[in-house]
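Posting here for the record, re: S-adenosyl-L-homocysteine.
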Amino acid sequence: MLQLPPWDLPAPEAAAAVRPNAAGLGLGDLGQLLSGLGEPAWRGGQIFSGLLRHRWTRWEQFSTLARALRTRLEAAVDLAWPAIVQSQPSEDGSTKHVFGLADGNQVEGVHMPYEDRVTLCLSSQVGCAMGCTFCATGQMGIVRNLSAAEIVGQVIVMLNHHDHPAGQPVNLVFMGMGEPLHNLEHLMAAFETLTHPDGLGIPPRRITVSTSGLVSGIDRMGTFARRPRLALSLNCISDERRARIMPVNRVWNLEALAACLGRFPLQSGERITLEYVLLKGVTDSLEDGFRLATFARRFPSKVNLIPFNPHEGSGFEPPEESRIGALCRQLAEGGITVSVRRSRGQDVAGACGQLVRDDRRQRQPREG
Ligand code: SAH
Ligand code: SF4
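Prediction output follows.
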């Protein structure tokens, strides 16, 4: 529940400390905020559309509201999205953005334009607790979860920065920093805001959440009637090796994962994406490819091969091109839908698993 500040007794410092922020609030919370200002709650809907559909970022832009109300909002309510503090365009057209959060932490997102759509890669946490040995984010540990507002904010700010034309489809992939299912509550709140028809109205099928394999989280996500698509970072098809590179496998092994994906309530035509990072000499043998195909046949799925993106000190290498081609052919001949993810933004360290703040000056989590 949104905590409303004491509007009628504004000690200036205290008022400054409790100023609410409208950016990223859901429809219900905006209604409450407006009620607290003595306005009808339905005006929260006008603000919601201004924030999410028009992507307005200053109260003066809210032409749907009376000037007097805009002035009151200006005085009492913040409208602060995460700020882009650094942008690195890549030769392939994608741009990695670093977002500064209110507490000084930073996360990263990537804007990837295609001919007919744009894909945004989003972060769900500052850092990540999962400790996958091949992943730069995993090496920094967990700092904290992102709020729903910070998740939604990455989308609004990237779309504004790139002057995204209304109507062009947007795909969202939670493949930036963090394990999204460790932050399911805020993730689903952000999902509701991002898919709401009065706002951006992004269709749920255009939103994909990638998990390292938190069975409890996958089961929970499966209970939502409206939810994102699921991608699983399988990455390795031997329990012994997977447990070495992905500690989560010591809690939920491949059999537990297959059982979980088998009971995941898919809609008609929906398939689970199996992401498979190709690490030379570790996950890229033809025997692995054979076992991967067998695993993938157990439920409706498609396989996405991701050649390892090198980063400093990882100790892993990507496979030879010829091996990538051979695995791809092997899977396709085995009847599996397969694609190879040519990671975008590799020259600016914006590709999968390279997202880490270089200075490692992350702050500690806040209380509460
Ligand atoms: N934590 C979630 C989502 C973020 S990682 C997850 O693990 O699924 C997004 C994808 O990048 C995952 O499939 C992960 O296995 C992959 N990845 C991580 N580090 C990588 C690297 N260095 N090269 C290629 N892919 C990597
Ligand atoms: Fe976390 Fe995903 Fe990286 Fe593993 S691969 S450490 S789950 S971000």
